[in-house]
Amino acid sequence: MLYRRFGRTELEMPVLSCGGMRYQQSWKDGDAISEENQANLEATVERALELGITHLETARGYGTSERQLGGILPRLPRERLILQTKVAPCPEPEQFERDVLDSLTRLRVEYVDLLGLHGINNREVLDWAIRPGGCLQRALQLKERGLVRHVGFSTHGSTDVIVDAIRDGRFEYVNLHYYWVLQDNLQAVREAAERDMGVFIISPSDKGGRLYDPPQKLCQLTEPLSPMVYNDLFCLANPEIHTISVGAARPGDFDAHMNAVEVLANHIGDPRRTIAPIERRLHAELEQKLGREWMASWSEGLPAWDRAPGGVNVREILRLYNLAVGLDLLQYGRQRYNLLENGGHWFPGSPATKLDDHAWQEALQTSPHAELVIERLGEAHRLLAGEAQKRLQQD
Q: Which residues are bridge partners to 199 per DSSP?
């Protein structure tokens, strides 16, 4: 395993983290735990530690995950672990504090190394967190009491919301989305680096393109690496990124990611030289399928989802369309597209079902591709629409 200094927390963070979102029994916290599932969870955690993955990450919102992790933590060497949980901010800071204390009870620990304010995805939740006397202030008071070592936040929000949270200055780390297929948050990564914050990438293999089940075309384009290893290296080649999450459902789920660690460990010089030829091939294929001019400027002049006609999340839909048409990431596109209108503030906006030309012509006045945007939104809906999806926590 390789380790990186996790910003000003000074923690030695493994470049792979053991995410606790997929190995739990149920998304309903009160459900009974089977011996088989608990044994699998414990075997997964033990395998992580064997590999040097000392960062165990979970959340209060992950159903039985905290409670099940509490079944093994008392038997593990606490001084070797970097334990993180996440608790959602709310309008009442007293409730937030009660939730944090209850999470410590579930985990059966006296403190967590990292406490993340979970889901700072929009302005309302950001305000609950950072306003005077808000949830962040409560978290920092818990830090003073020794119950929390470091305070950060996790987010699925837009880049402007993330950057404003970072600029508050009191958070020590951030969990965010950033992958080859979604690079919008590079500004946020750089803002965090300027403030010496730890940077933890969420869900690189699922939100990063369903890379556990990649299409054949993508596999060919990323040779000699697998798409998963390529994406891991894309993230970790940036020294401002310290760790990426492996949402392991079973002990063997770490194996493919360890290939990326091996490449990094054995690489001489800049690891970006390894991935640069692959990145050029991917860009060339997208340009060949969709047009060079489109790929150079498709995202310019697009309204945010809450300012678009019908609340259509035009930027996200066109991103998914580009990947589906250009790289055969069709299943990924359908999975994400059909979550629209069902994801709340974790994945906001509507699908492209409302395409009145007059309203869209006005909304796209500054787009260099106004007519083509409308046309491709319609194509995206025909290509991607299917059965409505729910976030895992809603299942």
A: 174
Between CA 240 and CA 241, with CA 255 as vertex, the angle to 5 degrees is 5
**Burial class of residue 119 in the structure, from the number of CB atoms within 10 Å of its CB (0-12 exposed, 13-18 middle, 19+ buried):** buried
pTM of the model as a whole: 0.92
Quickly count: other Cβ atoms within 10 Å of residue 341's Cβ: 16
- Confidence check: pLDDT of 223 > 80: yes
Q: In this structure, what is the dihedral angle of CA atoms 350, 353, 356, 362, given to the nearest 10 degrees?
A: 30
**CA 166 to CA 223: how far, in whole Å?**
37
CA atoms within 13 A on the CB side of 389: 19
Query: 341 pLDDT band (50/70/90 cuts)?
Result: confident
User: If you search the block for the tokens 């699925």, which residue do you land on?
Assistant: 156
- Quick one: the chain helix, strand, coil %, rounded to 5? 50, 15, 40
**Domains of the chain as residue ranges with CATH:** 3-269 (3.20.20.100), 291-394 (no CATH)
Within 10 Å of residue 361's Cβ, how many Cβ atoms?
A: 14
- Find, among 117, 96, 107, 65, the residue nearest to 392 by Cα: 65
pLDDT digits (tens, 9 = 90+) for 136-191: 999 999 999 999 999 999 999 999 999 999 999 999 999 999 999 999 999 999 99
